[in-house]
Amino acid sequence: MAARPVRAPPNPMPPSRLPIPDPTQPGAAAAAPARRAPGQAGPDWSFLMHRFSFRPLLAAALMAGASMAIVPHAHAGVVIVGTRIIFDANDKDRTIQLNNQDDAPAMVQAWIDAGDADAKASEIRVPFVLTPPLARIEPRQGQSLRLLHTPQAMPELPTDRESVFYFNVLEIPPRREAAPDENLLQLAVRSRIKLFYRPVGLEGKPREAAANLRWSRGRDADGEYLEAHNPSRYHVSLATASVGGASVTEPGMIAPGSSLRMALDKAPGAGQAVQFDWIDDFGGHLSASAALAQ
């Protein structure tokens, strides 16, 4: 999964360190209380019952007097089973599985966005509903989420090509009181993967889309680039791409009927074949090659 606080890369996202969202916003729901033995103390999530605003984590840390450090890797105790979700138009719902790999319970919040990773809950408009949107997952246990299609929310979705949305999971840490001589900074870990809505009767097959990419190379003010055009009705997600010994610096996702220009790390040699890896419906990386357009 890809760690980045603002936008999502095209491939499976690592965890991002983000501000904890407001569970009182539309779409949030209270989680059922966990069963505990009499007298047994559990993690403190009581702060979820209070309204707090979206605010940068840095500002919250400074207000709390926490010392800042660069954290090279954020550990996600709760993981999503799979790296993408395919929702066929003739399906009423889909089940998404979350697993808690930690030895402590976890509270998670889940939602769908339309591509803006920073959108507020009140601004998100998608044809899907998740239930439950807020859940507690016991140690080494799982939680199933039900994804329902609500076409009345977005009746204008195209029927001649795929549409892409994003499924988000935020792992909310329990509140812990800092010792008098301790500075405390707690991070919420967010994971984000693609959700493809696939209309019925699309021309061609998903596996054919990558093979039908049309490749060209060129040079602009920023240097050498490789460009791919996708004439299919499906999205194509690239993991790698190279030509003439030069590699693409940021592979991306090519929308149906669109082109994507990708910078190369150096000037390519005389090679005329593009080597690339693309990601299929199951998250597998498949290798392919194609000739450059003349």
From TrEMBL:
Biased composition (Low complexity): 25-40
The keyword Disulfide bond is assigned to this record: no
Limits of the Pili assembly chaperone C-terminal domain: 229-285
Coiled-coil spans in chain: none
Subcellular location: Periplasm
Superkingdom of the source species: Bacteria
GO BP field: cell wall organization
Keyword presence, Glycoprotein: no
Region of interest (Disordered), ranges: 1-40
InterPro entries: Ig-like_fold, PapD-like_sf, Periplasmic_pilus_chap, Pili_assmbl_chap_C_dom_sf, Pili_assmbl_chaperone_bac, Pili_assmbl_chaperone_C, Pili_assmbl_chaperone_CS, Pili_assmbl_chaperone_N
Limits of the Pili assembly chaperone N-terminal domain: 77-202
Keywords: Chaperone, Fimbrium biogenesis, Immunoglobulin domain, Periplasm, Signal
Pro residues: compositionally biased ranges: 7-24
Gene Ontology terms: cellular component: outer membrane-bounded periplasmic space
Family according to the record: Belongs to the periplasmic pilus chaperone family.
Protein's UniProt name: Fimbria/pilus periplasmic chaperone
Species this protein is from: Stenotrophomonas rhizophila
